[in-house]
Design a protein that fits this description.
144 residues, alpha+beta, Immunoglobulin-like, 2 domains, four-stranded antiparallel sheet, 1 helix, binds copper (II) ion
């Protein structure tokens, strides 16, 4: 085998190994102890956050909204600004859309529009909450 041909074969082998590694990572099941709670304290403990999809049951590929409830010390937080981020930890990609909070809809509840999960698997929704009480985040795991 000529030297250039050897280099090409070696290159193809490396690409195949890397591709196989990515495929195995994407196909791997999510952690068995994944916390699927839809209600939890925020990361720094400033808020208690609950999320609920308006689409029941959740469906792949459909645009829908979520209701996020925010409380602090047992009382609804009515003056927060919410941001949404997320993605699929095992696929290394973010959300396919840019969900937006359309504001407070009463009693500490906020509507998040424009959520769409374009594939099945393990998704993470990160809710950012800013109010005079402080800034905090809450991360939720969603299986689809
Ligand atoms: Cu994905």
């Amino acid at each position: 085998m000529s030297r250039s041909r050897l280099v090409i074969v070696a290159l193809i082998a490396v690409i195949a190994v890397v591709a196989a590694w990515y495929l195995m990572r994407m196909m791997a099941p999510p952690p068995s102890d994944l916390d699927l709670a839809r209600e939890k304290p925020s990361a720094a403990g400033l808020y208690h956050v609950a999320i609920e999809p308006e689409l029941q049951p959740l469906e792949q590929g459909r645009m829908h909204s979520w209701i996020v409830s925010v409380q602090a010390n047992g009382a609804p937080v009515t003056d927060a600004t919410l941001t949404v981020d997320g993605g699929m930890p095992q696929h290394g990609h973010g959300l396919p859309t840019q969900p937006q909070s359309t504001g407070h809809v009463g009693e500490g509840r906020y509507r998040i529009d424009g959520v769409r999960f374009n594939m099945g698997g393990w998704w993470v929704l990160k809710i950012g909450i800013a109010s005079p009480a402080g800034s905090d985040t809450a991360e939720f795991n969603i299986m689809l």
